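Recall that a protein's primary structure is simply its ordered list of amino acids. Everything else, from secondary elements to tertiary packing, is in principle encoded there. The following example makes that idea concrete.
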Amino acid sequence: MGKKNIQIKPSENKSTKKNKKNSKETINSINNKNEKKNNKKINISSNKLDNCFNIYLNILESKLITTIEQLELIKTGIINNDNEKKIKIKLLFRASRDGDNNKSYHDKCDGISPTISIIKTKTGYTFGGYTDCSLNSTSGCVKTNNSFIFSFDKMKIYKGVNGGYFHCGTDCGPWFCGCVGVNGDNYIKTENSYQWEINRFKYFEGFTEEYELVGGIRHFSVEEVEVFKVEII
């Protein structure tokens, strides 16, 4: 996307003030704010993440979450402006480590909820989503109470319509029904994954361009997939 990551070390006080401000903003206001600024890459320890952002995370577990802004976006989507809640996330599945196929994904993730899935394409786009659906191999397209999609490139959240939908089946990896996901086996070696047209199903709202999660091209190859278990505390 042409964005330049800048490596900085923020002071803890500034980060704390920033968190207090952002915790009071709604999802839409954060979407508008983040679309106007670039991500800044930050080296920060997990205990500072806990203190400043009420997020428990061993940041070394993730290859795809690289900035504080990305963590804030995910947290905001899950708990909105409830500053009393925290989230804890734990890595369940990584395609390059566990196998880029549906069986490996289901072996690691079935029976677990809620989850965050993050996908990076070989063209450099990173997006993902959250669902409270219990992952499984048989349910097909499931209506959920709370699912949303996010883009790290646009720093934007796409809310699920009437709670959103998630697909559970042996034919795919993480898949947000009627929108986008990882399809078929050998994710990293094929271009079987894709994003649906924005007016096809309308299960998620906020899209303004065709295939905007993946740079305007329907099919994409996957560089990496990560799935995390989420605990709201």
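The chain has one domain: 12-232. The radius of gyration is 17 Å.
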